[in-house]
Every structure is written in C-alpha cells, then in structure tokens.
Amino acid sequence: MRKIKYSILSLLGLVMVFTSCNDSGKKSRGALASNNAEKVYVAPGEQDEFYAFMSGGYSGNLTVYGLPSGRMFKEIPVFSQFATNGYGYSEETKPMLNTSFGFVPWDDSHHPDISQTNGELDGRWIFINGNNTPRIARIDLKTFETAEIIEVPNSAGNHSSSFITENTEYVVAGTRFSVPVPQRDMPINEYKGNFKGALSFISVDPEDGEMDIKFQILMPGFNYDLSHPGRGKSHGWFFFTTYNTEEANSLLEVNASQNDKDFIAAINWKKIEEYVNNGGGTKIPANYAHNIYSDEDHTAVSTMKKEVLTVDPTKVPGAVYFLPTPKSPHGCDVDPTGSYIIGNGKLSADLTVHSFDKMLAAIEGKKFDGEAYGIPILKFEDVLAGTVKSGGLGPLHTEFDGEGNAYTTFFISSEVVMWKLGTWEVVDRKPTYYSVGHLMIPGGNSRKPFGKYVVAMNKITKDRYLPTGPELEHSAQLYDISGDKMELIYDFPTHGEPHYAAGIPAELIAPKSQKIYKLAENKHPRATLGVNDARVERDGNEVHVYMAMIRSHFTPDNIEGIKVGDKVYFHITNHEQDFDVPHGFAMIGANNSELLIMPGQTKTLVWEPKQVGVWPFYCTDFCSALHQEMQGYVRVSPTNSNVDLTWSLGE
Amino acid sequence: MRKIKYSILSLLGLVMVFTSCNDSGKKSRGALASNNAEKVYVAPGEQDEFYAFMSGGYSGNLTVYGLPSGRMFKEIPVFSQFATNGYGYSEETKPMLNTSFGFVPWDDSHHPDISQTNGELDGRWIFINGNNTPRIARIDLKTFETAEIIEVPNSAGNHSSSFITENTEYVVAGTRFSVPVPQRDMPINEYKGNFKGALSFISVDPEDGEMDIKFQILMPGFNYDLSHPGRGKSHGWFFFTTYNTEEANSLLEVNASQNDKDFIAAINWKKIEEYVNNGGGTKIPANYAHNIYSDEDHTAVSTMKKEVLTVDPTKVPGAVYFLPTPKSPHGCDVDPTGSYIIGNGKLSADLTVHSFDKMLAAIEGKKFDGEAYGIPILKFEDVLAGTVKSGGLGPLHTEFDGEGNAYTTFFISSEVVMWKLGTWEVVDRKPTYYSVGHLMIPGGNSRKPFGKYVVAMNKITKDRYLPTGPELEHSAQLYDISGDKMELIYDFPTHGEPHYAAGIPAELIAPKSQKIYKLAENKHPRATLGVNDARVERDGNEVHVYMAMIRSHFTPDNIEGIKVGDKVYFHITNHEQDFDVPHGFAMIGANNSELLIMPGQTKTLVWEPKQVGVWPFYCTDFCSALHQEMQGYVRVSPTNSNVDLTWSLGE
Description:
Subcellular location (chains A, B): Cell envelope
Strand order of the largest sheet of chain A: 6-7-8-9-16-17-12-11-10
Number of helices of chain A: 6
Largest sheet of chain A: 9 strands, mixed
Number of domains of chain A: 2
Organism (chains A, B): Maribacter aquimaris
Pfam families (chains A, B): nos_propeller
CATH class of the largest domain in chain A: Mainly Beta
Oligomer: homodimer
Protein name (chains A, B): Sec-dependent nitrous-oxide reductase
Structural class of chain A: mainly beta
CATH topology of the largest domain in chain A: Methylamine Dehydrogenase, Chain H
Largest interface: A-B, 184 and 184 residues
Helix content of chain A: under 10%
Keywords (chains A, B): Copper, Metal-binding, Oxidoreductase, Signal
Shape of chain A: globular
Strand content of chain A: 35-45%
C-alpha cells in the first residue's frame, strides 16, 4: 500500500473552531416565514405526508417522526430496555436482549433501512444495527414492534450496517473495529496483519423476514465504516468504506490518518453466494444469539447458534476489489441508477465519485495498483468518474432526490451541498445549525427517491432551542427541495443521536398498520382468555396469577396466600378489542418496570414480595372514567404462614 | 356518613361510547389554518415562549416541551432507568433508584409542580411524584437533572402529590390506596376502619431545596386522589379530594361509586405545623430511602431513614374538615385568588365550587353534618359557592387564566369548558380529540397564571397522527386563549402519559440554564482531572480505570492485564469545557448501558469481562471529524494469566 504523509493538524484545528455563526432565521417573521409555517404545519385532524424512522443512536432504539411536522409519534424499543412499556423487563421480552455476553440492556443503534422489492421501498420491515454488541434487528412495520434480533459473531463496532440489497435478499453487517477472529488472548500492538474485519451477509426470508447469517467475509483488519448496496446495473455488488488501513491500534486520531487514500471495498456478493452455495467457505465454531418475537404467543425466544460460515475473500477470484478513495472516507453512497459510488472523504474538501462501469472495465482490464492482503487494488484514475469540488470541508454522507441531484453533508463547514450527478457541479449550498452528520431524503437509498424534503441530522444543538442544562437533544433541520434550491423551513429536536434515517410516504405503511391483537388468536401459553379462567396457582414458591383486565377491572382484584420469598408471576391478558385501549399494570415495590398491555395481548411481570402487608396494584393507563378504581390488593404473609391461597372473581 | 344509592350503569355505558366524532379540522387549509400555522410556528433561529414540563406517566420521567411549537426538548430521567444516558445504570446514579424495596427501576410519574415564591413561579426546582412505589423527586432547573428523591413510607399509590405551598414551604404526598399503617398481615376484606390514608407534608429547604418529611397525617382509609394548596387568603390550607369513602376493597368501579358525595379534605397545615413544632405527634418506626445527587462530586448517595412523625388529625382540633363533594371528585383545584376550591366530580355533569370564606364561617359557626372517624363534616350548603352547570360529562381538572376564567376538562364528553369564576356561567366549550385528562395553563397553579395558551392532555389518540401499530403516544392539543374564546391551533404527541404539566415563561428559566460543569470544581473521588493522572489500578479482582476523554481521544486507549472474572470500573472524566460537547463511552458486551458524560463530569461504568480476547470501546456521541477514531481496546486474558497490567498514555 502506498503511504503519503499527510498533516492533519490544520484540519484538526478546524474541527475545534466550528462557529455558532450568523443565523439568518433570527429576523422577525415576514412573508417568507409565514410561507414556511404553512409548509410544515399539519393542522389538527390532518396527517403528515411521510414517515421518518430515525435511529436513536445512543438511545438504542428507533424513533418514528412525521414529515413535514417533525413530530415524534413513537419510540420503538429495539436494543435498550424501555421502562415505558416494559420492553426488556417483561418475561416475554427479556429474551430479545440476550446475547453471547448475557443480557445486554442497551446498544447504540445506527442505520435504519426499509425493506425493498425491485429496488423500491415496500414498507414491510425496517432493519437497524446495534453498533456496540454487534446485532441486527428487524422491526415489523405492521405492528411497529421489534420482531427479531440476531447477534453478529466475529465482529466489533457493527457500524457499516444494516443496509439491504434491492430485493431484501440480504442485510449486511460490517465490523468497524477489527478484532482477532476467533477471539484470543494476544497483545493489542500485534493487531497489524492479525486482526480481521468480518463483513456479514444475513439472508432475509422473503415471506416472514426471518434472518440467518449466510456467510461472513473475513477481510483485512481495517475499520469498515459505512456501506451501501449496488442497485440496478450494480445489483449484486455491495460497497464498504474503510479507514485505518494503517491498522493502528492506539492514538487513531493521528495514526489512522496517515494514508492519503483508504479504500472502498467492492464486494460481488452474488459471486460469493454462488461460491458458498457450491460448498465454498469454512464453517467455524461461534456463539451468537438469535432472538425472535412472535405476535402469536406475544413471546420472544432466544436461541444460541453455534457455528458460522466464513469466506476467505482471496479464495474467491473476482469477488472483492479495493477502490482507492482519499482522506479516510466515511459515507459510501450509491446513486439511484446504481452507476456511481460516492466516497465522502471526511478529512477532505472534495468528494470522490467512482464509476461502476469504469470499475467493471478496470477489473476486466486488470488495471491493478498492487494488492492489500491478496485483494486487488484498482487504479484510482481508472475507476474515478469525477470529483465534486465542493468548497466545503468534512463531507460525510450523500443522498439523492431522483431528479439527478445529490446532497452531501459537510460536518466541519456545517452545510448541505447540492450538486449534479454527471457534471459534478455544485448548484446550491445551505448552512446547517450545527455540524451536520447524516441526512435523509425519503427513499434516498433506493431506485426511487421521493425528493420533496431533505432532513439534516445535526450533531451540535447549542442555541437552537430553549436550553435544558448541559445535556441537549440533537437537532434536525428540514429543507424543502421541491424547487431549484434548498430552502430551510424548520428545526426540530430528535431523541438520542440519529445516525441516518429512513423515510417513506405514509401511504405505503399507514393503511396496513395493525390496530389490535385478536384475543381469539392469542396463543400465549399462560393467557387468560375468559374471565372464568382467571385463577392463582402455586408451584412451590412460584405463584402464577392468571389475570384478565378490561375497563375498569382486574380479575382477580384481591389475592391472599402470597408469602415473603415467593416469586409471583402476573400473567395478564388485556381483553379489550378496541383500538387504542391499552391497560397498564404496576405493583408497588416491584424491582421491575410496569407492563403496558395492548388489546388482546398477554404480558408477564415478576414480583418478589419482600415485606409482609397488604400491597396494592393498579392500572397505569387512564382507560375510562373509572380508571382510578381499577386497582386491587395482594396480601403478603410471612414465609411460614398458613393463609390459604384465595382470590376474588368479582362476586 | 350518608349514603345514597346511585346507579352508575348509565355513566359506565357512556364511558364506553366515546365517539371518534366529527373533526372540524379535516377541511382543507384555508386562511384560518394559515393563521394558526403562524401562531405555532417557531422559525429556525427563534425560540419558544414557554417551557412545558409534562409528566411522563408510565415513562416514569419528566419531559420538557416548548410552547407554542409542541417540540420535545428533553426527557429528564427521574424514576426510571434511562439507557440513553446511563441514568440508573452508572454507579453514580444507581443510588437514585434505591428504595426500601431495593432497587426499583421504574415508576409512574404524575404531577409536576414548579417551586414558588409568594405564590408566583420562581423556576428554581420542579417536583414530581412517583405514584407506584411512593416517592417525590426534585429536579434542578439549572441543570435539568434529578437532584433528589425521597421515598414516602406508610403510603401507596402516591397520587394526590406533588403540589407545593405558595412559598415552597412544603411539597405534599398523599396516599391514593389506603393500607394498614404500619403494614401488617391482615385480611384484605377487613380494610374498612382499619386501613389508613397518609397525607405527608415534606419540607423543602429554602436554600438548597433539600426535602425532609416533616409530618404525616394519618387520615381515614379513603382514597386521596388529588390536591392543591390554598393561596393568598387560603395560604396555610391544603385541599385533597377523596373517593372510595365507602372503603371498598374489591370491584371498586361499582363499590366505590355508591356514595352520592365523597369529600374534599381541608387541611390547616399551619395549625398542624404549630402542633408538631410544639412537640405534638408520634414518631413511629419507618424505613424509607432518601437519595441525593450532588453536582459537586457527580454522585448520588442513598440514606435509609428510620422513623417518621405521624399526626392523628383528631388530636389537633380545628386542623382538618371534610367538605362534602358530589360524585367521586377527582381534580381539586384552587383559583388564583385562593377564594374558591373546585371539586370535579368525575361521575357528574356539574362542578362543585366551594367558598373558602364560607368554609371559615361554617367552621366558626360549627355548621357540621356529622363526622367521619372523628373529623367534622361541614354542611354542603354552607360551604358551597356555586355550581357550574357545564352541560359536559366527567369533569376532571380545572385551570385558570388569571383573567377570571376557569377551564375544565371533561373526559367523557371530550371537551374543555371555559367558565367564569363568580358567575359560574359557561362562556365557551371546545372539543378535544379525544377524552381529555389534565390540562395546563402556564402558571395555572399559582397566583399569577400566564393565560395565553391552554394545553389539553388527551388519553385517547386513535387517528390524530400517522398510525404506529397498536401502541400510540398520547396526544396533546394546544388552544389559543388570548381572545374571548378558545381556539384549537395544534395537535402534538406526548411521550408516556402526561398527568398534569407545569408551564412557565422561558425567560424565568432559560437565562439561568447551566452549560457545563467546571472541571476545576469536580470533586468526584475518582475523577481524572489531568491526563497525567490517567492510570489503571488493580485491587484484588477489582480494576479501576481512571480515564480522561477529550476530542478525539481516550487516555488510556489500550489496556492489558485484565482477566476474566475481574470487575472493571471505568471512571471516566470528560475534559471538555465547551457547551454541548458530551462524549459517550460504550464497551462491547457490557451488561449495562452506555455512559453519556457532560463536559467536566465524571461517570463510572462497571464491566465484568466474560470472554478472553481483545475487546473495543468507543465514544458514542459524534464529537468531531475524528470521532470515528475515538476508540480503544482492552485485552482480556484468562483468569490465571500473568499478563502485566499496562496501559497506553498516548506515547
């Protein structure tokens, strides 16, 4: 690999000096503001035009917004415990957070991507990666609940994930931090040449969406930062940015910025799929969790998987190439036609655009510039389609409007730059407040973007909203891109730290949104489907309460015969069958969250009473005019008590 | 007590038949919509006029919104674990969730109230109650962080809380579910006459806000639903609604609705304060947690308190009276002058307004209508100021605009009704979508409301936003009340279930909002204040990592000599001193959340490595152009390894 010493000190300086600069919005409201007000206003009784699914970053979850209003409609718990509805606290959902490291109550969720058919959004599922303890989740867009989480072995810092191929054949998961594969006790400073970066291709069942790791490509020990699929003509390929091709293990902010160019890795996954379908690859022992939640029994099951199929990329000729790309490329974006691969060199002013056609020609013509660990490096000049002389600094991510324009965020210079595909000319630029990371156009990662709005997700908030002490939410900005130029029309705060987002027209999802769970189809093994089935059963020191709830009553509502030292399982079934009539359940002193139970659903809370007495429980969701009366009592007797197990059934 | 049989069946029917009725907003946008758009639009670069602090209900937290935009600026974790920033997961914050029941990771947060001086909002602190495992929290409005939580013993369903007196002398906490005091093993159906309802008066230190339970009044075993302080002429009194004066223990939705009238309890707390200051009351053994977080050492300490002073109200003549109030009153609201106490009989069509002056006269004239458990019942007719013939059904809560108008929510008929204090005439009514619970006018619970907006907090959402499966966020609606009539101008979703909210002009809080923690003032015992202090120390199988972080580096960033079976404490200090430059810390496979660490702050994460290997950690908050390089590795060796403890300091 060629190395060119490159001083990053000036750039580092610039990182520190972002400016809380001039803010043209601070004039008083004129005709323009009024126009913008109307553009983002969704009047009472009307609805938003687009869903925006924003990753929660360090919240570990996925949040659902409406555009253009910027209102947050739901936080979907994915990788993090969520006390609000009991996710990760109820017996049914705890298995969702199981991993090879045990129960992990948090993650750093990064890049959501909506399922596609023929390269267009189909709105069936949305995928998102857990960055820290490597996992990929699938969320069902009928129920807006996390349906599945699969752990990714041999991986660390699962960042270049979870993007999908154009028929949702695969969702990919790529290592950011290379590690020993398999893991072993070795000196950290022997990293170079010894660590590996696994790129995992996880198949998605076309019927039910179930995920399975089809193969892992064991790449050189670089950092794999982001990725995007080929589409159209480049369908069958996947592109990953790399940085730290220096393979430094310490002081990366200096040592990983030495090479003038890192790479975009071009993976011909169809070729590797064919290779493994023909028996290629090596199965190695592994240990990773596969957690599936079923709407039928309202319960998650975690299974540990014990091996994974690995592929040495040098064993599959023609499958993997490196495209030299300047300045530690971060984002790796593919235009709607699949012709161009844009590398956003984060320490650069310019964008590097590679041509898929030229790449194929260079491969065909063997125009190589050496190799890295046996993987051919294509000649930079032979794959380059063009360079966007942006005038900005610190490009990170690019999206597309489907009208031939691309939009790139610049973190250091705090702006979104709009430019033309093919001519590479800059046609507009607008400031962001402040230090933008990702951006999103609905459908922007597909063949068919809906180029009406772009959302900029900013990393610095400062004075954009009323202050809330030292800790602030991040800030998003909404631009109208329906005209020739971008127009900033709204600021709205976002929860956690959105890293990418996926937008989709509401009409593709809203009509299919599920309203209730049918009680008649509830297959929970401990459901109480009729009030007459309500009962309390003792099994040693385990007590199972089979409880029903309906406005405004628990059956049973008085229970006696519980003892200190018991482990009490409340299995509670919500008998409502109307939309938007959840009930909650809380027990005083439980070392647990509440349960929020949707119509037709069964959930279980464990309570270990520690003190003798008469203790109340109640409904936590104001459900009717008599909600305050929806309560009950449990009598807890001493461990050695002879109080009979009894309960009230409304007599 | 008089009992009048009262059929609630018709009302119960009505509860079920709320209508997803006509929605006048569904017409296309005209001039009026444009006008409303401008009213709620806060242009980029501008800021909202009011803070709205909304209780999170079953989220257990407190959310901060701006008005009129309806944007959520922060979720402040209070009673619930919050994986987003590590609250309840970090070593420093775990003690905040300690209780006499052990660690309780969730609660049901209900009624926020902002501190007052002379009956006006002073914006120093905001208090909120945990309903389930009875607690009161104090949040510091300089840092927007939870500063203190005190558990409330002898209490259950801590609902008629956490309202404050007009100089923040006390915050009150009232039992909703009466229980045996002290707790004991007894049959539930012996409730009547044996259970008690504790009303706790918690003193607030005028300098630092620290709370202490001054006394608990052991009232009859009714359900104490809501409360509000007297003010102005009625300062020194506190008013609590009761229901279930029937003292039913089962099927409350029927059995607690038998009495035609329940009571508002009028408590002369100044008289009781004098009584206990003179040695009155009885100290009884108790066990409750008092948790205080210090900004100096960034650490919470939990102390168990062992006794509490109780007061038998019958022993303090002239201190407690019952005001008969029809139909299971829910809300209990006092107008800005302190002259009127409004009881919202939730199974009624009318509002009952009591006169403070007439109450004093009735007490003076001994116009009693019997007693309940030794507490005098005042004659209804002698304390009644008037009745508001609302025409609505199911009144819950009332707020005031300071212009002589009151606004009452009606759950069953889904509307807000505006009426005149003194004449009791209805002057306007507007529908809510749907089934409104609480409402809020900034300063509405003070002498000086800011009557520009009213926010209705609705319990049912249904079709107000794009659907998100069976589980929906609740919905708030914003009305402009600056004119003669109410005008619905916006819908916005709210997180969890807001039960009440507290609004305040931004100018009373924003200028004092803290931006950073000063590193020089950091008193955390394990802080790493200089990079040269960074180190790793072993103490048996405990390992303490003293780590510093600054853009874009951890010191140390490579650590060796950790073994399987160790318990590793990462004590991490953020060396930034600029506003809005937090860093995060995540360790792969940790059975814990991340840490989100503000400038100048120290936080600690515990990690118990389970597997041999080389494992990465990284910064979870995109902090600079070289954020992706802000990472490190820990080498984990077998338990019996001899690998030396070493770490890198940037050499």
